UniProtKB/TrEMBL annotation:
Pfam families named among the record's database cross-references: HTH_24, ROK
Highest rank taxon of the organism: Bacteria
Keywords, sorted A to Z: Plasmid
Protein name stated in the entry: ROK family transcriptional regulator
InterPro entries in UniProt: ATPase_NBD, ROK, WH-like_DNA-bd_sf, WH_DNA-bd_sf
Species whose genome carries this gene: Rhizobium sullae (Rhizobium hedysari)
Keyword Disulfide bond part of the UniProt annotation: no
Length: 384
């Protein structure tokens, strides 16, 4: 039987009259409030096809349920009494994002309004899948207690894993995560945690986090490069994640053949190079925190991957035509800048005029973007 996390949502979060958490019109208004902080109630009608009466009725219903709150009036907008501003009520619900990488599992607790309540991590190395999940559950309980988060406000879990989608909630993950691969993660995790679980690719949740908390606040079309043990990414078009026909849009490593794949910008390959040069780098997490561009082997590795990297950047430019390409995942900012400095765009100007080029931007999300995107996934899937 297919797995649908929506079927496991606690009754307290469901609408009284019909199935689901919110109606289509309510969802549209919640998305509008998210995208336009400080929007006043009187301004909403101009952004929708609904009448002012319908807008006010829907907002009042959402406020009665505790999903929307009213802020200080915005003066000088419309006629009559100043209209209150609208906000999502974070205290209505919270979620947990879990991001499984090859060396660490990131955790992020987030409320409905997108506020990060807590962040943590669990070391994955030399742990079985069962041991890792036990540690995650313990860490989650610790954070809930520490932050005073009540169980009845726990809406659900977003789960992100490195690897590509092979159908359902099965992912083909890198070799260090072989135990997590090719199994139905959704029902397994839902039973383990006792909550609905939305399962996604980790690079995609990183792209979602970037779209909602990073450059996506002012750029709506961008490609997200996720540098991790392997190398992948995500595509954001008009603020929304593009999944493709099989859920694997953004699997950038797929353009390389077997020989070229050894020269793609995967961080595990850099770690192997550093270890051969006598630099003890035990994990990608360690490298991100302690990266030194003067380590022996760094410059040589960047020079070696530059042709493959440049071909990818130009392929993204030609096929997707983004406004920006964002360097994210677990890449150290210094390493990202080295790649940006070596970028060559293959555009051939016609009549002296070239195509608009994407900006190359280093992500400013310093924490685990994949875990952040996983945390907001349950709310994006149901509320906005």
């Amino acid at each position: 039987m297919p797995y649908f996390p929506e079927a496991l949502i606690a009754p307290k979060f469901l609408r009284a009259t019909t199935e689901g958490v919110v109606s289509p019109n309510e969802r549209n208004l919640l998305r509008l409030i998210w995208r336009h902080p400080g929007l006043s109630r009187s301004e909403v009608t101009a952004h929708t096809d609904l009448t002012q009466q319908s807008v006010y009725r829907i907002i009042d219903q959402l406020a009665e349920r505790g999903i929307v709150g009213f802020g200080s009036p915005k003066p000088g907008v419309g006629r009559g009494q100043p209209s209150p501003t609208l906000r999502l009520e974070g205290r209505y619900a919270y979620s947990c994002g879990i991001s499984v990488n090859t060396d660490v599992i990131g955790l992020c607790l987030m409320d409905l309004a997108g506020n990060i309540l807590a962040e943590s991590s669990v070391t994955l190395r030399e742990q079985t899948m069962a041991q890792s999940l036990d540690l995650v559950r313990e860490r989650l309980a610790e954070q809930q207690k520490l932050k005073g988060l009540l169980p009845d406000g726990f809406f659900g879990i977003g789960f992100a894993i490195a690897g590509y989608d092979v159908g359902g909630t099965r992912y083909n993950a890198p070799l260090p995560l072989h135990e997590w691969s090719l199994i139905e993660l959704g029902p397994l995790l839902a039973e383990f945690f006792g909550k609905p679980v939305w399962v996604h690719n980790g690079a995609n949740t990183g792209a979602v986090a970037e779209s909602m908390f990073g450059v996506g606040r002012y750029i709506k079309h961008f490609a997200y490069l996720s540098f991790n043990y392997g190398f992948g990414g995500g595509l954001i078009s008009d603020g929304e994640l593009l999944l493709g026909g099989n859920g694997n849009a953004g699997e950038f490593s797929g353009i390389y053949d077997t020989e070229e794949s050894q020269r793609r910008p995967a961080l595990q390959l850099l770690i192997e190079r550093l270890n051969r040069n006598g630099i003890d780098v035990p994990s990608i997490t360690y490298m991100r925190k302690n990266f030194n561009p003067r380590w022996p082997g760094v410059v040589e590795w960047v020079d070696e991957i530059t042709p493959a990297y440049n071909r990818l950047v130009n392929a993204i430019w030609a096929i997707f035509d983004p406004q920006a390409i964002v360097f994210g995942g677990q890449v150290p900012s210094g390493l990202a800048q080295m790649m940006i400095d070596r970028t060559e765009m293959f555009g051939r100007p016609r009549y002296g005029v070239d195509r608009p080029r994407p900006k190359l931007i280093i992500s400013k999300i310093s924490s685990d973007a994949s875990a952040m995107g996983a945390a907001i996934a349950p709310f994006r899937s149901t509320f906005y």
